[in-house]
Design goal:
Blueprint lengths: L10 H8 L7 H17 L6 E6 L5 E6 L2 H4 L6 H13 L12 E7 L3 H10 L3 E6 L1 H5 L12 H7 L3 E3 L4 H13 L11
Length: about 190
């Protein structure tokens, strides 16, 4: 029996996570994330990326991309990878610790049902999204039965949400992925 989970980050993600990056606003942070999504597609990954920043300073804490197929783990969604790397970097599962700066998750698309749970339990205080869930499901991805009131629920729990940031650019990556015949990697259903 295995005693550890392990998967390698592609070179572009390792490089992004080793750089000192500070981006002043949501649009610049989203451009950074969308560039990661493009690089991920070029590295045979899914068309999704995410990053965790210190909200006030804009300092990058961790960058992630969807590595489901490459890693063999269905949980290796961009948001989960970015949140896990940020938690590892800060040494705690709760990014909302009183002595931590407020954290912001920037994602190329709205969270799926699984990633919505990860956002709730991660401790981030801000979520910035590019493409909408319906943009993702239009490609055939299964986003799960996410409640229609998900933004209100996050806000009720103290997580501010900003949607549609550079949505057109995020959707362009999704369309390019589809046109190129990118794999739609949903679980098998009988």
């Amino acid at each position: 029996m295995e005693t550890a989970l392990h998967f390698e980050l592609p070179e572009f993600l390792a490089r992004a996570n080793s750089q000192a990056v500070t981006l002043p606003n949501a649009e610049d942070r989203m451009r950074f994330v969308l560039d990661l999504a493009r690089q991920n597609v070029a590295a045979d990954g899914g068309p999704f990326a995410a990053a965790v920043f210190e909200h006030a300073s804009g300092r990058l804490l961790a960058a992630g991309a969807n590595r489901v197929v490459a890693s063999g783990y269905s949980c290796a969604h961009a948001e989960v990878v970015a949140l896990s790397l940020a938690q590892n970097r800060l040494g705690h599962y709760d990014l909302g610790q009183a002595d931590f700066p407020a954290c912001e998750l920037v994602s190329s698309a709205e969270p799926c049902l699984m990633c919505l749970g990860a956002v709730l339990w991660s401790g981030v205080r801000y979520l910035v999204c590019g493409a909408r869930g319906e943009d993702v499901t239009a490609l055939g991805f299964d986003e799960g039965p996410k409640p229609h009131v998900w933004i209100g629920e996050l806000r009720r729990r103290g997580i501010e949400v900003r949607a549609d940031v550079l949505r057109d650019e995020a959707c362009e990556i999704l369309r390019d992925y589809q046109v190129a015949g990118g794999l739609i990697y949903n679980a098998s259903r009988s």
